[in-house]
Design goal:
By secondary structure, the chain is of the alpha+beta class. The chain has one domain. Helix content is about 60%, strand content about 15%. The chain has 4 helices and 2 strands. The chain has a two-stranded antiparallel sheet with strand order 1-2. α2 crosses α3 and α3 crosses α4. The radius of gyration is 13 Å and the shape is globular. The relative contact order is 0.16.
């Protein structure tokens, strides 16, 4: 599978949806985890920020930036919704 095919698969399979805070957080972490697991280059990975009911997706500028966003969102998911974190990370 080429990188473009991987990214297209991720876009179709792991869309970021913001219907509720929980849905937005879960879908953002799931999407970012998929990008990491599929080894998508950092400059093509998504950084997700929430603002009310709107979601802003942009490309990461550095691995540190992406890792920071992913760690923060994952920690928020673990803290507020541990059952959903466990489903995503299988621990």
């Amino acid at each position: 599978m080429t990188m473009d095919e991987k990214i297209r698969y991720i876009e179709l399979t792991y869309p970021v949806r913001v219907r509720t805070e929980l849905a937005g957080l879960v879908t953002a972490v799931r999407r970012m985890k998929a990008e990491r697991d599929f080894e998508v280059p950092v400059n093509r990975r998504t950084v997700v920020e929430f603002s009310g009911e709107r979601v802003k997706q942009e490309k990461a500028t550095s691995k540190e930036e992406w890792d920071g966003f992913f760690a923060n969102l994952s920690a928020e998911l673990l803290l507020n919704y541990p059952e959903h974190w466990e489903r995503l990370f299988g621990f």
